[in-house]
Amino acid sequence: MIEFELNGKKVKSERPASHRLLDVLREEFRLTGVKCGCGEGECGACSVFMNGELVNSCILSMGRIRGQSIITIEGFRETKRFAVLQDAYDKTGAVQCGFCTPGMIMASEALLSRVPDPQEEEIRDALSGNLCRCTGYNMIVDAVLLAAKEGKGIW
């Protein structure tokens, strides 16, 4: 049995230590905001926070999360920071098909929590681990710039 904290609550999983966190989140806990885009840690669609650090859940085995704190997009969306990011993504048209959006928002939060007033180059670098096939990234960069401006003081 593997015990860990998930979105602020203590949980247990009977899955073997070799199972991917991504699959356990989707199948056992029904948290479908994490997506399997590549299965190799290259696309960012499965991004979660582990102890406050952005990680790819598709390459994390359950054995590595024993006793750790995991926050998914479902947990993050309960925060004021999420509301600011969501509003900025909406206003700039940064959401197209939506597949990459949870991972992009998590990467945006990771950046803004470190750099509350980022420059465009910093945003592009921070989002470089997330792939989007629809937007061309410019609208997503604009969303992060807008969120930094409108959320001044919360990061």
UniProtKB/TrEMBL annotation:
One Pfam family named in its UniProt record: Fer2_2
UniProt keyword Iron-sulfur, yes or no: yes
GO MF terms, alphabetically ordered: 2 iron, 2 sulfur cluster binding; metal ion binding; oxidoreductase activity
Record-given protein name: Carbon-monoxide dehydrogenase small subunit
The entry's keywords: 2Fe-2S, Iron, Iron-sulfur, Metal-binding, Oxidoreductase
The keyword Iron is annotated on this UniProt entry: yes
InterPro entries given in the database record: 2Fe-2S-bd (IPR002888), 2Fe-2S-bd_dom_sf (IPR036884), 2Fe-2S_ferredoxin-like_sf (IPR036010), 2Fe-2S_ferredoxin-type (IPR001041), 2Fe2S_fd_BS (IPR006058), Beta-grasp_dom_sf (IPR012675), Diverse_Oxidoreductases (IPR051452)
Domain (2Fe-2S ferredoxin-type) ranges: 1-76
Transmembrane regions: none
